[in-house]
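RETRY 2/3 - previous attempt timed out on the joint model. Re-submitting the same 525-residue input unchanged.
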Amino acid sequence: MKRHLISAADLTRDDAVLILDTAEEMARVADRPIKKLPTLRGRTVVNLFFEDSTRTRISFEAAAKRLSADVINFSAKGSSVSKGESLKDTALTLEAMGADAVVIRHHASGAPYRLATSGWIDGAVVNAGDGTHEHPTQALLDAFTMRRRLVGADAGIGRDLDGRRITIVGDVLHSRVARSNVHLLHTLGAEVTLVAPPTLVPIGVEHWPCQVAYHLDEVLPKSDAVMMLRVQRERMNAAFFPTEREYSRRYGLDGDRMARMPGHAIVMHPGPMNRGMEITAQVADSDRCTAVEQVANGVSTRMAVLYLLLGGAVFDSKATSATSPAPARTEENK
Amino acid sequence: MDTVESDAPRPVLEGPDIERVLTRIAHEIVERAKGADDVVLLGIPTRGVFLARRLAARLEQITGRKVPVGSLDITMYRDDLRMRPARALARTEIPGDGIEDRLVVLVDDVLFSGRTIRAALDALGDIGRPRAVQLAVLVDRGHRELPIRADYVGKNLPTSLRETVKVQLSEEDGRDAVLLGLQQTAPAGEQ
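RETRY 2/3 succeeded.
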């Protein structure tokens, strides 16, 4: 695995399966009386959030704390950033405080990449959502949820999502979740179909490893999982569809539509949900909707990512194995 | 003395030896635990789990009762995590009735530095509070780095640090054997 997690497209199939398998073991820690592991003791994880977020930040915080890491939360509001500090100076400050990992959410696409490649900080960088670019840990927790539901928790170990048909519905244009999911699900062998009004399909989508459809009803009976994206009202200033009612009628998921899905198919939503808009309350509250499960799985998945990025040796990327340390006496080379 | 020092690992225990050793350990557990009423066997992945299952089957034969058996992954509790890239995790499976007030017998294939067992004791502490913890190993090869000893030992195998001890079990490796070999002096930069 690479040293940073910037894009779901950077993950190979084996990386992704390793993360999902690790997350499966992490999920079992939640069932124990002491929900904590000592693994990242003494390591510092900084949550650097330039954009509002509750569930992602809390999820990363819970994940880091369950692994015994120290967590520093930094949100742009009420910080030096609101006084005009640049990303570089913020990064240098965090580096001086000894951050071993920086979890960054930023309104500008590419900010995590800049942070990881600039040399400003030595720690691992985890992208927690950048602009309309990517949100790789959300894609990982979605894939984890799909594997658990469609393949099975134990049966899924070591397996990918080969041949599963995943439909992603809604505002693909502004959705970093959709972009990360398309890349990751394709890597895991799933067949992805995007369904959206033409105005909400991004330019260049023909180069994405997925199909595009404009009619939800044609795709639903052939879906193993249907992921409803949130209609991002805060980004809808350009009027991408005539009215919310029309959007809801054509692209919203209600009870009738859900009944037309195969019996085993699940409904997913990355949250926060607009009930009555892209999803009706009847669907959101049914046991086929995994929205709450996805939140719980998010903690396990982020634990897996933090463990795999921080739990082992940190190799200097510049000096590639020039000096291999003396073989450690571990119980493994017994 | 054999004059040809071959590089090929030499078996020190073969299949039937391992069977006999496990049967003996099972009887020792019953003897020391006075009937093994409250014994829980926890194997340390990978091969300790298979050994624990085999011991459980023998204990059942002897006592006529099912003995709870599970596995305890110690990866997250290792003290050498930062010396290597992050490792894949193995399964921790605690039997349904838990380990509270039970006699937990940890089972591993080789006892060497003792660091795995230290990690296992830490891991147990996060799961519950057993009445007592004991340790059963197939091979004790010496060179302890911590004040830890085994309660049940299949075979004491004095070794030098240049030697390697490899346990093979049919569940994982297709055959049962304990192999004693010489450490490969790998060229620098390998691995």
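DSSP finds four helices and eight strands in chain B. Closing ticket.
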